Amino acid sequence: MTPDDTLSVAIATCAAWPDPGPGLLPLIEALTARGFDVTCLPWQSVDEQAFLTARVILPLCAWDYAAAPRAFRDWIARIAAGGGRFANAPDLMLWNMEKSYLLDLAARGVPVPRTHVIADPSAGTVAARMREEGWGRAVLKPAIGQSGNGVTLLELARIGNWPQMPPGAHVLQEFQADIGETGETTLTFFGGAFSHAVLRRPAAGEWRANSQYGVALERIRPDKAVIEVARRALAALPTPPAYVRVDGIARPGREFLVTEIELIEPALFLHLCPGKAERIVDLLCCAA
């Protein structure tokens, strides 16, 4: 079935959290005000007609796909094959699922943390890589992960206290020791145009800039140089996205370091940025 002529938007949520969070309410309200029919339902839903017939699909609340990555990949492929239209290209989202995409960005000249893909996350393998790099501390993350789950800070001098890592691919990165001071700068783009930026500052004594660890949010105006590096990151993507959030560390006098690009379910922080939801609606209206 192909999408019909109605102005309909399907926001994919997930079985663990079937309702959209408050951060998306401005978007839902803006879409409704413009005449869009908005449906929110988990990507795991048995009845997929709402996705297949929607003018556009926004998987902005698919917050649990890391628990079932194969099923999520199959869902994207099945919906796309059935005529479903995702805002961001299916191949782009599939590429973005695994954090090994950072190696692609680095190869295209985007400044990212030194990153290694570790197929065997055993202590011996990880420690050997850290010694090769001369890292006293490093961060180990599941290659497919969300919301900071499974992210572990490892100190080489305390290898005897390391937790046992679950099997599967991981990425190993040099620890950015000043993250607690600098915070993480997030830049949101719609249709390739910069929209807004929010600083995520970790809680005292914490180094992870994720909501579950008590991060504080603040809308900011980033330097032009920061925005330009983010634009370079967008230019390095396989295909242009309709929406994207570029995360990184902004240090005075130094080049913006891109730590992550979110192309599937980024928090857009629309509740902190009045009027920005209308930019997405404008984009969808042009596409419709």
UniProtKB/TrEMBL annotation:
SUPFAM superfamilies listed in its UniProt record: Glutathione synthetase ATP-binding domain-like
Gene Ontology molecular function: ATP binding
Xref: Gene3D superfamilies: 3.40.50.20, ATP-grasp fold, A domain, ATP-grasp fold, B domain
TM region(s), chain numbering: none
Cross-referenced PANTHER family: GLUTATHIONE SYNTHETASE (PTHR39217:SF1), PTHR39217
Official protein name in the record: Glutathione synthetase-like protein
Source lineage: Bacteria, Pseudomonadati, Pseudomonadota, Alphaproteobacteria, Rhodobacterales
